[in-house]
Amino acid sequence: MIFYIIILLLLIAAVLWLGQLVLANPGVATITWGAWSVEMKTATLVAMVVLACVAFYLLVSLLRHVLGMRRNFSRYRAAKLGSKANRALTQGLIQLTEGHWEKAEKLLVDHAPHSDTPLLNYLAAARAAHMREAYERRDELLKQAIESDGKANVAVGVSQADMQYGSGQLEQAHATLLRLRELAPKHPYVLKLLTKVLYRQENWDALLELLPDLVKQNLLKTEDMNKVQGATLKAMFQHYAKDKQTGKLQAMWKKLPAPIRDNPEAILLYGEALHAAGDDLACASLIGSILNKRWDDGLAGLYGRIQHHSLGNAIQQAEKWQLSQPDNNPALLLLLARLYNQQKLWGMAKSYYESSLNQAPNAEGYLELAELLETMKEPENAQRCYRLGLRYCIRSEGEKLSLTPTQRPQVNPQAAKAPELTPYNGL
Questions:
Q1: What are phi and psi of 105, to 5 degrees?
Q2: What is the per-residue pLDDT for 426?
């Protein structure tokens, strides 16, 4: 403001000085243009020049004012349309939430060009089209969303993949997510959504490659992570175990992240795969190393089912574990019962089976004991065990197992003085 005042004062001073100079030195000025010439006093010429400058200034000011009015009108119109578009965005989102998807899409799309956030308009409109199962229209609106904001490729792609997954378009969602992984390799939601897609596709090979990233970023809840991890490992382990590829089994296990290899469920799945592949020696070594550090009922159950190279050593190992475990640990008792059964020490096996099942009913345990009792020529006890096992499978309720003691063989009364026979103890 001060600058303009100074300029104005300088102009007034210059005009006054020029006026005094002209008045002090009057004269005649001649303007010649070809054959045409005009004579006038110098003061008149100066006045005309000043008036011309003033007129030019006024003309320029008028033009600027007119153009400014047009510009202001354009700004006013744009502001009005923008305000209307913002209200339409709010109304469109309300319609979308209430389930009026066609109305929502029309509101959002019609006002998107004048919106301050056209990306939101097109994304919401695409969601409305998706909800009414107009998938081609949805993809078209998503393309318009990208065109409205070239930096929103990942945001639009995530929305598209999410909607494709929700509508069961797993192949399309997979392709979209692979493209997004190239654009944003560490994007957490892209990884989480890709995990869901691969799980539903049962694409275990690809899912196995994602497990390290899932563990590292901790994106899934513990329950969901265990579900995904368990299904993936089980499928891959079964694949290699079916073909007896123990080398690939062990190589795969070594490549898994340490948190997975320390997971009891993963260890159990790996042990079962080694057993299914026929490598009981490696399975026994794995279980032994784990149970020496910490007890796990699932691994103990598997240890009793595998074929041991030396049953004597296996029983000695189990007896050592018994020293560090409570006497009534049903899993350990069942383990000892199975080992003694394999060694054909049937009396010992029967006793351990009975003690274990009375504390923790087990369908496999009932069956194994019933078969053992048939071997021991105790059909009544075997039938009782079969019945209890069947009822447990149906009702999931355990019952007290009480086996009838083995009857003594009948003795001739006339031979009363004969030495008594000891009951059959299965040894």
A1: -60, -45
A2: 34
Sign of the alpha-carbon dihedral angle for 61, 64, 70, 72: negative
- Residue 259: domain span: 202-278
Within 8 A by CB and 6+ apart from 8, the residues are: none
Residue 234 or residue 23, greater confidence: 234
Distance CA 321, CA 324 (A): 5
Domain count, the chain: 2
- 234 falls within a domain: yes
**Is 316 found in the same domain as 256?**
no
Q: Is 129 helix (H, G, I), strand (E, B) or coil?
A: helix
β-bridge mates for residue 36, sequence order: 33
Sign of CA dihedral 14, 16, 19, 23: negative
Q: Apex CA 183: angle with CA 180 and CA 185, to 5°?
A: 80
The verdict on residue 247 lying in a domain is: yes
Do 261 and 289 fall within a single domain? no
Structure tokens at 311: 């049953």
For 152, 158, 211, 213, the CA distances from 180, given in Å and listed in that order, are: 12, 8, 18, 16
DSSP state of 111: T
Quick check: is 151 in a domain? Answer: no
Q: Residue 41 forms beta bridges with which residues?
A: 28
405 within domain boundaries = no
- In the structure encoding, which two tokens stand for residue 227, read together? 């579900």
CA distance 362 to 297: 12
Q: pLDDT digits over 342-382, tens only?
A: 999 999 999 999 999 999 999 999 999 999 999 999 999 99
